[in-house]
TrEMBL record:
Protein name per Swiss-Prot or TrEMBL: Putative trypsin-like serine protease
Pfam families cross-referenced by the UniProt entry: Trypsin (PF00089)
InterPro entries reported for this sequence: CLIP_Serine_Protease, Peptidase_S1_PA, Peptidase_S1_PA_chymotrypsin, Trypsin_dom, TRYPSIN_SER
GO MF term list: serine-type endopeptidase activity
Originating species: Anopheles marajoara
Entry keywords, A to Z: Hydrolase, Protease
């Protein structure tokens, strides 16, 4: 009898089927005096009618049972010496190794178990639940995921046990041990068409896929009935398109060449992949294949191949090792997409992520028609997985033996709970684990790691990937060789500089001191000596008086209290100054909020009462404005006034106009290349900080630039604020067809062209740690661009001139 839950009630008999047993075939080695080979096949009078309530189970014919939980069901007793249940009950059990189970079942305490437990038997149990008398012959199965549905796979058949309810595991007959007997018995008893292929997991799962239970469903009840539908918002595996993923291929691929080698685009011509995917028997891959989407359908794409130009494998990696398994591949040409960002922290922003994998197409489409569509082609998949702590990463023995040092910080353990039908999903070598994060009003794809090893994409049991963050230093050394060389040079300079620092312990504060050239100086605190830090950076000879905080300073460079207040000290304390003024600023509408730091630099003729605004600048202290040298080099129009507080001014006395006391262009300004295109304007009047006018800060970091800043431009007809992003110098020089000059950087916009006027400021706002209003930093000054879409503009990098600014102040 099948399709009936309550054997003693007719209320649920609508779909019940009851068929006669015409033949019982016991295993030939089974005897009633022993507990071994306890399995049989029963031939029915006719085929069952397949329906949602009655459908064949699949057989799990792999000897390895790696599932955490198994289900059993039956109408047996509900407890020791209790009545049998009229309603079918199911129980969740945990499989045990036979070595553990042998503690409960030995030849001395179980009749008919003279040789102990055999390999064709398996145990499963639970601290509170168990199968019981009357459940014999019932199923021990697992539900495996495929096609957004689950199919039961029979792992064992209930055989025997001890009195139930006493926390003893039960013993089950392992179905996998009898694969050959089951198939041959069916073939010789009226089913000669049965083949091994029909018992493959994919074949059985697809056979009745249209009537299998939904894995994640939504039940809706209304006046017309109760309906169940698939909840796509909670699906485990999707076929979403990942534009940053690529494949690596070899020309004339041999059968032993790596397959499913993937990587992720991290720069316009650069891919990061596994070290094992970057070399096969000493031969590098010859082509990188990138898929470009052509429509909204899942298979709407074209493939574009790029020749491999250069391959760099991590120097510590050895073939087949799970350590330092990383490589960088450069192509001839450029990918036409925005690269993925490398997540540069060990802590993940979210434990959920997506991974690029492959799987059989017919196991990953929603099949609801009675005729199954078979399609064994591999398609790309994007399963949802979660990161696990490495200490809780339970790996199969085949992987553990290759981890001589265990899992390290460079490894990312990941997975998901459900087990899959085999071939539903398989890891690629180097498939990216990524997540789209919303930052700076945009979505950015961040890649965390590359898949390394594991089964079924980490579903059921964890898989492992290699993180990119622990390898950032090596990645930077091959991706940013200039920066790496510069840092090494700076370290070398710092080492060499030890020999040019002298300390005269007999000199004290305000003593006279003598330089090696015979000139005379004064011993003052280092912070009162203008340019001392810059001279130390240039490895010039520095004389210290009595200790490292007092230096010998030329009289012209000694700063008084006024210099400290309105010079270097003001720049250094800028982020901590003007908090009340910033707090007031954020209360005003953001659309036309006063530009308190931006200066309009102009030329004015008092005799004719005529003038013009030449360019913009940025107020960095109360008596100095930064702009470009180009701005102050216009023939016959040398600027002589500065206007502040007039842009979006909201107060009657907002605007302040002052004359320029001194214009200081950088001594190495090159008018032809716009190298060192920076100038400082010293103002005649002290600009008292108000709600309308107060200084902004200078961006301090010489190696990193904010991911998104704002370019402010103004002319007679418009005011524009444009989101803008930094670009690597290498990419910029390639786009511009020439090298950057000293002190220059490149920036680009996502859509449109970079276009502005010389001196236009680029600024970035940072939230303060105490929760007060943002601090605004001057990051750059617009130098020049050709105003063409997709081509970067050239800007003055402010952080490169901080020492020069200190000197001239």
């Amino acid at each position: 009898r099948m399709g009936d839950l309550n054997l003693f009630s007719a209320e649920d008999d609508e779909h019940a089927q009851q068929l006669k047993i015409v033949k019982i075939i016991r295993h030939p080695q089974h005897t009633f005096s022993a507990r071994y080979y306890d399995i049989a096949l029963m031939q029915l009078e006719r085929n069952v009618t397949v329906h949602e309530t009655v459908a064949p189970s699949c057989l799990w014919l792999d000897e390895e049972v790696r599932f955490r939980d198994l289900e059993s069901a039956g109408w047996g007793q509900t407890g020791f010496a209790e009545e049998r249940t009229p309603i079918l009950l199911k129980v969740t059990l945990n499989p045990l190794r036979n070595e553990q189970c042998s503690e409960h079942y030995t030849s001395s305490n179980v009749r008919g178990l003279r040789q102990g437990l055999h390999s064709h038997q398996l145990c499963a149990g639970d601290a509170k639940m168990d199968t019981c008398l009357g459940d014999s012959g019932g199923p021990l199965h697992v539900r495996l995921l495929h096609n957004y549905k689950v199919t039961p796979f029979l792992v064992g058949v209930t055989s025997f046990g001890k009195p139930c309810g006493q926390s003893h595991p039960g013993v089950y007959t392992r179905v996998a041990s009898f694969r050959r007997w089951i198939i041959e018995t069916m073939q010789s008893n009226g089913a000669p068409e049965v083949t091994d292929e029909q018992f493959e997991p994919y074949a059985c799962a697809l056979r009745y896929v249209h009537i299998r239970q939904l894995a994640v469903s939504r039940v809706v009840a209304n006046e017309t009935g109760v309906f169940e539908s698939f909840d796509f918002s909670r699906q485990y595996i999707t076929r979403d398109f990942v534009k940053e993923a690529v494949e690596l291929r070899w020309h004339n691929e041999s059968s032993s060449a790596p397959v499913n080698c993937m990587g992720v685009i991290i720069d316009h011509d650069t891919v990061v992949t596994l070290g094992d995917c970057a070399s096969h028997e000493g031969v590098h891959p010859t082509q990188v294949v990138h898929r470009i989407r052509t429509g909204y359908l899942e298979d709407a794409f074209v493939e574009r191949g790029y020749e491999v130009k250069e391959v760099m494998i991590h120097p510590n990696h050895t073939t087949g090792s799970y350590y330092d398994n990383l490589a960088v591949v450069k192509i001839s040409g450029m990918f036409g997409i925005t690269p993925a960002c490398i997540w540069n922290a060990l802590q993940l922003p979210d434990q959920q992520m997506e991974i690029t994998t492959v799987g059989r197409k017919d196991l990953n489409v929603y099949q609801y028609e009675s005729v199954t569509n078979y399609d064994p082609r591999l398609v790309r998949l994007m399963p949802r997985v979660y990161g696990f702590e490495n200490t809780n990463c339970s790996l199969a023995e085949q992987y553990r033996r290759n981890l001589s040092r265990g899992l390290q910080d460079e490894h990312l353990c990941f997975g998901n709970d459900p087990f899959l039908v085999p071939e539903t999903c398989a890891l690629t070598n180097g498939g990216p684990l990524q997540r789209t994060l919303f930052r700076l009003d945009r979505h950015f794809k961040h890649v965390y790691a590359l898949s390394l090893f594991g089964r079924d994409c980490g579903f059921g049991e964890p898989a492992v990937a290699v993180r990119l963050h622990p390898h950032l230093r090596w990645l930077e050394s091959v991706l940013l060789p200039r920066q790496s060389n510069r840092m090494n040079a700076e370290k070398e300079d710092a080492r060499k500089s030890d020999s040019i620092l002298f300390i005269d312990s007999e000199l004290e504060l305000f003593d006279r001191c003598d330089f090696s050239d015979g000139s005379v100086g004064l011993c003052v605190p280092a912070e009162r000596c203008r340019g001392v830090y810059d001279r130390m950076q240039r490895n010039e000879v520095t004389l210290f008086c009595s200790n490292g905080s007092i230096v010998c300073c030329a009289p012209r460079n000694v700063m008084d209290d006024s210099d400290l207040r309105y010079g270097v000290g003001e720049i250094e304390s800028c982020p901590r100054n003007y908090g009340d003024l910033r707090d007031h600023l954020v209360t005003l509408p953001s659309e036309e909020r006063p530009k308190t730091h931006i200066a309009e630099i102009g030329w004015y003729d008092a005799k004719t009462d005529k003038g013009t605004i030449l360019c913009l600048g940025y107020l960095i202290i109360t008596q100095a404005v930064l702009t470009t040298a180009e701005c102050v080099s216009i023939p016959d129009l040398e600027p002589n006034i500065v206007r502040l507080g007039a842009i979006f001014g909201q107060f009657e006395d907002s605007a302040k106009i002052t004359s320029i006391d001194e214009i200081i262009k950088h001594p190495r300004y090159d008018q032809r290349t716009n190298g060192n295109n920076i100038a400082l304007l010293k103002l005649t009047d002290y600009m008292r900080p108000t709600k309308a006018v107060f200084p902004g800060c200078l961006w301090p970091n010489a190696t990193h630039t904010p991911l998104q800043s704002t370019l402010f431009s103004k002319d007679a007809s418009r005011v524009q604020e444009l989101p803008i992003h930094p670009q690597y110098a290498f990419d910029c020089e390639r786009a511009l067809g020439g090298e950057l000059s000293e002190g220059q950087m490149c920036m680009i916009v996502t859509d449109g062209a970079v276009c502005g006027n010389s001196g236009d400021p680029v600024f970035w706002s940072e939230k303060t740690t105490d929760g007060s209003a943002s601090v605004e930093y001057l990051v750059g000054l617009y130098s020049h661009a050709n105003c063409t879409e997709g081509i970067p503009g050239v800007f003055v990098r402010i952080s490169a001139y901080r020492k020069w600014i200190w000197d001239v102040l």
